[in-house]
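We examine the record.
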Amino acid sequence: MNATFANAVLPLSPVRPHRRFHVGGHALRPEAVAAFNRVLERLGTAPLDEDQIASFSRAVSPRQDATAVPAWILTHMRDAAAIRLMLGDPGWDLLERAADPAHVVSDYLRDHADLIPDRLPVLGRLDDAIVVEAAWSGIGTEVIDYLDYRRLRRLEAAMRGCDERAFRFGRTDWEEARQAEAALVRHLREVGTRSYLPATGGRGRFRIN
């Protein structure tokens, strides 16, 4: 789990003399928090209460007059976009263990009755980002592999003069292309450490008169 997220909300504290219930002016409703925690439970993450979520929002965006979406949220929204691309790509054979958390994230992003309204300035996507963070241990490697798959599919399609959208390139093809690319990189590194010319043990064979 991201250190910023973990440090801000964990561990649970039994004493909360100054409880907070608002994120960017939005009041967190108990029933919405309960529904949010059911999502986190499916992702294997401990539940959060209103105070923890509100406290974390202040850790992510400390300034009350902030107008820009925090980098932490933007990064996770890019990850979320990659997850949805992955789920919608018929060429990618998604591993079974990553399928459920990926769908949990995608379903939550589509839910218009989520914990924090998306239209809320600055922090409207905080809850979406937390869900992505909670899912990342189960799908992070798969998302990274998928993005590499897209990169190699573009390269392979370009070399063949094909439209990437119509190019038949599956997970097995990606694994083979990745191995070939890795072998080429190893070869180039080895060449860089030695000369193609044999050593003569003495004076060079070539002279300029």
